[in-house]
Amino acid sequence: MKDIQKEFLDNRNPTKDLWRMFRVISDFTDAFEELEDLPPAISIFGSAREKKDGFYYKKATEISKKLSDKGYAIITGGGPGIMEAANKGAKISVGLNIELPHEQKTNPYVKIPLKFKYFFTRKVTFLKYSVGAVMMPGGFGTLDELSEVLTLIQTNRMSKIPIVFFGSEFYKPLLNFFDTMLKHNYIDKKDLNLFLVSDDVDESVEYIYKNAIKPQLLKSN
Question: How far apart, in whole angstroms, are the C-alpha atoms of residue 172 and residue 67?
């Protein structure tokens, strides 16, 4: 109990809060300086636990390569699994890593690495530089990022960007839960149009490209 009380009191310590504020500013400053000239990017989210010979590892690499060929930078969390696969397929490859108790090493395919102290500063950076998002199968982290982008678009806190849920069988239980939310009027029917569910690499890439800012158009301006 004493440890819990100490943690609670430390969490309300004005001196520590001041240093937290500086660390937050440091996270953002490093990211903004490093990514200032980044082309429009697509964020690819997914499990760190996917194996190199896994089906979704291969598909993430394919999607990344095809989006990269269209001129997009690719942003991931910088770790192993799906993140590594997506960085592997990219020409301009960004990894937004996070400091964890059991350190997550940056994968070898990241060309522009950044390390964050806080999850929320990392999520802001993902969405600040992304004009589209691909949600590959994943765990709590992927679900968190998925919920973040849907909530921000639904509430008009950010512009609508194309979102792909890749893996219809994997996402089927979540889609069923969305239907339950709809039945209770907790979301609107139009909210189910905020994303595409697909099992096809080319369909996913074309959906992103059709609905996202085009890199070449931005360059011409």
Answer: 25
